[in-house]
Design a protein that fits this description.
Blueprint (H helix, E strand, L loop, with lengths): L15 H6 L11 E4 L6 H9 L5 E6 L2 H12 L1 H16 L5 H17 L4 H14 L28 H11 L2 E5 L13 E5 L22 H16 L3 E7 L10 H5 L4 E6 L15 E6 L1
Parallel strand pairs: 1-2, 1-4, 2-3, 4-5
Antiparallel strand pairs: 5-7, 6-7
The structure holds S-adenosylmethionine.
């Protein structure tokens, strides 16, 4: 019963029902590789495993190297990781009533993470520690690729969920982990594959821009490059589901995605956004699920 071990912007828990309705029926009977090319916390992957316990092959990819290194550490060195995280958790809990001490501890860990001179297991522990204790579980870096999110206001955040980390470790034994651009995942696929693609969303307005998952912007040119990629997947006979923001929420005249994906199926689904939502607090937002 493994579940995501990170908080991640754009986690897809609220879209799962709609994703389920769009999973190709042939996958009930056929062997396939599951590919999550913009993994983040891999919410859909963990859910897929429950739905298809016999899933034999999966690939998780993200351009964020520190993030994928966490997965690699959990796969190969989970016991040491747990040891470090539980020590840090105990230390952190001692400062329960002293915000100053908590802050000092948090910012020291952040500095150590940004120095990038720890071994992979410690670096992964730092990533998980910061994710559990920072403001809203945000991941944001500056131009120098330094993590710059301030401390969160949690009293006793769970830093080390030992049972879950062990479950995740078991599951990852059969998973190929890649850190790089989503396009490279195709080179690792043999046979039929089902791709779930959850790129950084196109901002609903200039001011709601949230594109700082890693360096580099996922701008309109990137959205178009992604469309060309899924078009290629379609021609190769693979199946895919892609999610994105619905720019019609803020401008009903905006046909960006409707034009881009006119050859495919576009469904609008209601979804509450979490971290990255500030554009429209009045009504429920729709998001797009696009499939071939
Ligand atoms: C919306 S989030 C995915 C959230 C994920 N579905 C979850 O359950 O947490 C987008 C992810 O795409 C990654 N990313 C951005 N550009 C990428 C690229 N060119 N190739 C692969 N991953 C990329 C970011 O690092 C980020 O983790």
């Amino acid at each position: 019963m493994a579940k995501p071990f990170l908080k991640w912007a754009g986690g897809k828990t609220q879209l799962l029902d709609s994703i389920e309705q769009n999973i190709p029926t042939e996958f009930e009977h056929q062997e396939f590789t599951y590919v999550e090319a913009f993994a983040g916390s891999s919410a859909v992957f963990f859910w897929m495993l429950k739905k298809y316990p016999t899933l034999k092959k999966a690939i998780l990819n993200d351009i964020n190297i520190d993030l994928i290194n966490c997965y690699k550490t959990i796969k190969t060195n989970v016991d040491e990781l747990i040891q470090i995280l539980s020590t840090w958790q105990n230390e952190y809990y001692q400062f329960e009533d002293s915000l100053d001490e908590k802050k000092e501890y948090y910012y020291a860990k952040r500095q150590l993470f940004n120095a990038h001179n720890s071994n992979q297991t410690t670096q992964s522990a730092l990533f998980i520690f910061l994710n559990r204790t920072c403001f809203n579980g945000l991941y944001r870096v500056n131009k120098k690729n330094e993590f710059n999110v301030p401390i969160g206001s949690y009293k006793k955040p769970q830093i080390c969920n030992q049972e879950n980390l062990l479950n995740v470790s078991k599951i990852l034994q059969n998973v190929e982990l890649l850190s790089g651009d989503y396009q490279q995942t195709l080179e690792h696929v043999h046979g039929k594959a089902f791709f779930y693609l959850d790129p950084p969303y196109k901002p609903l307005s200039e001011t709601s821009s949230f594109t700082s998952y890693a360096k580099g912007d996922f701008n309109d040119a990137e959205q178009i490059r992604l469309k060309e990629f899924v078009h290629k997947l379609d021609q190769l006979g693979h199946k895919w589901i892609l999610s994105n923001s619905d720019v019609k929420n803020t401008n009903p005249e905006n046909n960006f995605f409707d034009d881009l994906y006119q050859a495919f199926n576009i469904t609008r689904v209601f979804a509450k956004r979490s971290i990255n939502s500030n554009a429209n607090k009045r009504g429920q937002l729709t998001e797009l699920l696009i499939t071939n």
